[in-house]
Amino acid sequence: MQFGKFRVGLRTLKTGLAVMIIITAFYFLKRPPFVAALASVFALRESWDKTLSFAKIRLISNTVGGLLALLYFLVHVHAHNAAWVSILLLPLLVIIAIVFLDGFNFNSGVIGALAALLMISLNIPAGATVLYVIDRIVDTFIGVLVAISVNRFASPDQKK
Which residues cross the membrane (predicted)? Predict the structure, then answer.
């Protein structure tokens, strides 16, 4: 669809559909949809093949970012929520994520890993448990899987 110089393409519609599916599912699951919705937006690409390829990178980067967020959470709790953990450890974990992913030639996953690390780490509510962090890691996987599914089943046949 074209509205003057503005175009609504298939990728735009698929992205909206993926976000709608996540918001609806998470509403019924009584879970916050933010992390999953954002992960689906990051993962959804213009074709099935590109989404699948990028999803692999996204899942690896989410795992790295999520595990580092879990490490951050454990240290933060152990240090009785001391400010120094956020000020010193979180930037160090950012550096570790970049170096690790670069070392394995997953440079295209750096932004996703840092997004997962920072979204999870900087949004941990007071009194949260390890389960909260694990839930957010799972949410990133759900978002990527929804993006893969939407792109698989809402794409023209020649792209499958």
Answer: 12-29, 57-75, 82-104, 110-134
Which is nearest to 9 in space by CA: 144, 153, 155?
Answer: 155
CB 159 within 8 A of CB 58: no
* Cα–Cα distance for residue pair 124/159, rounded to 1 Å: 39
3-state secondary structure of 31: coil
Q: Are 127 and 42 in contact (CB under 8 A)?
A: no
The candidate with the shortest Cα–Cα distance to 11, out of 66, 38, 48, 56, is 48
pTM over 0.85: no
- C-alpha closest to that of 132 among 114, 117, 145, 120: 120
Question: Helical H runs in the chain?
Answer: 10-29, 34-43, 48-78, 83-84, 90-103, 110-121, 130-153
Q: Which amino acid is at 140?
A: T
- Where residue 7 falls (left for φ over 0; alpha for ψ -120 to 50; beta otherwise) is beta
Residue-wise pLDDT tens digits, 94-150: 999 999 999 999 999 999 899 989 988 998 888 888 999 899 889 989 999 999 999
